[in-house]
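Students often ask why inverse folding is considered easier than folding. One informal answer: many sequences map to the same fold, so there is more than one right answer. In these notes we will look at a single instance of the problem. The structure comes first.
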């Protein structure tokens, strides 16, 4: 069929030659037992454009596969029919974003390459946290060496997941020494560690004050930029483990003065809120039985923020959750009015400009609506934590995510 004729055919029935790139692309991760875990991308617009469509093919199917240990990519593109003159070639688009080691179409070559790479495989990085066990599996977290050839190669194999699973995600400049890449592995079979997920963080320089500056003291603001757990491994609290263990690692680093997150989505905000809340209660940094609204002065906030390396917004959210938790679950019972005013003060400051032109009744009504909406969302975040705590106590255990709430739940249970 000539180019002119093929375009004429396509113009009559364009929908038959148009595919959703989200639906056409299938991602597979093959584990060490030979099982292939299949999932679809959340986004493909960074690759195929805002419409997330590919024109010029019938029956288009794109397969992007990875080995769970080496993460060596395999790409194959299949279709039933194709126009001769196409604007977007999915093969070329994807190969531009994948490392040169990617194997195209030759599955036997891919499997042979995996087998060769897995021989005496060594993770190209340094272990940064103690190994831990979750649901009978062993895990470890490594900081990748982005100056070594093998570390850079693994980074290049992983990074396409940023485009496919993080909205507005982009590749980092791995040559910039201020970037850090942390990879979480399942190490149940120590000889074949399997990738679970990864996080990137950027180290921003912070002026330490004249005295420390003159003495050469380095201060850093650590910003989490990207955070990915492989879809087939989600729902096991592994993302929470990765975030919590990295946070505790950074708490021990005297150079780091603040830990922040770049444009978190709602699901990461939830994870962060629950982990931070649990950690602070579990480690007795906050005592829910004695914390009072009147004790939270500007000086208290500044001291706590510095000690826990929390950004101001996150600390404000956590304090509001602490007090709302007390109202609903105990053990302390603060004044409802005091808690309401504590939260509304922040809401007013945040929305001062928008509220400034309103009359007093309208202003109060909008603040009350905002308060009720925020309180409802906080309780949505807190409820699973309290349920796990009570379930843990009923079962006679105190492990997992509920451990930090054991005493609170026990007292509430007695009431």
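Output (designed amino acids):
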């Amino acid at each position: 069929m000539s180019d002119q004729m093929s375009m004429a055919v396509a113009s009559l029935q364009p929908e038959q030659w148009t595919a959703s790139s989200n639906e056409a692309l299938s991602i597979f991760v093959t584990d060490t037992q030979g099982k292939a875990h299949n999932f679809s991308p959340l986004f493909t617009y960074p690759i195929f454009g805002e419409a997330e469509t590919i024109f010029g093919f019938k029956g288009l199917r794109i397969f992007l596969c990875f080995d769970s240990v080496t993460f060596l990519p395999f790409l194959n593109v299949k279709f039933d029919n194709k126009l001769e003159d196409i604007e977007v070639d999915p093969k070329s688009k994807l190969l531009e974003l994948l490392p040169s080691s990617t194997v195209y179409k030759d599955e036997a070559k891919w499997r042979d390459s995996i087998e060769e790479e897995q021989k005496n495989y060594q993770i190209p990085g340094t272990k940064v946290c103690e190994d831990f066990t979750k649901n009978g599996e062993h895990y470890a977290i490594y900081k990748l060496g982005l100056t070594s050839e093998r570390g850079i190669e693994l980074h290049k194999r992983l990074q396409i997941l940023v485009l496919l699973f993080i909205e507005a995600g982009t590749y980092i400049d791995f040559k910039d020494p201020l970037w850090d890449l942390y990879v979480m592995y399942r190490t149940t079979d120590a000889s074949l560690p399997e990738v679970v997920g990864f996080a990137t963080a950027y180290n921003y320089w912070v002026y330490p004050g004249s005295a420390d500056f003159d003495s050469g003291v380095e201060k850093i603001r650590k910003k989490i930029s990207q955070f990915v757990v492989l879809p087939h491994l989600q729902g096991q609290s592994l993302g929470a483990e990765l975030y919590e263990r990295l946070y505790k690692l950074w708490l021990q680093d005297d150079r780091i003065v603040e830990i922040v997150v770049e444009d978190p989505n709602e699901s990461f905000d939830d994870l962060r809120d629950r982990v931070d809340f649990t950690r602070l209660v579990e480690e007795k940094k906050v005592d829910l039985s004695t914390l009072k609204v009147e004790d939270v002065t500007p000086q208290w906030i500044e001291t706590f923020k510095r000690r826990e390396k929390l950004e101001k917004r996150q600390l404000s959210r956590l304090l509001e959750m602490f007090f709302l938790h007390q109202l609903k679950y105990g053990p302390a019972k603060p004044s409802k009015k005091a808690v309401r005013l504590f939260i509304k003060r922040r809401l007013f400051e945040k929305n001062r400009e928008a509220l400034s032109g309103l009359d007093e009744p309208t202003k109060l009504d909008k603040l009350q609506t905002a308060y009720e909406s925020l309180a409802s969302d906080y309780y949505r975040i807190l409820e699973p934590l309290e349920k796990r705590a009570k379930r843990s106590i009923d079962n006679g255990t105190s492990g997992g995510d509920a451990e930090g709430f054991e005493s609170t739940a026990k007292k509430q249970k007695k009431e």
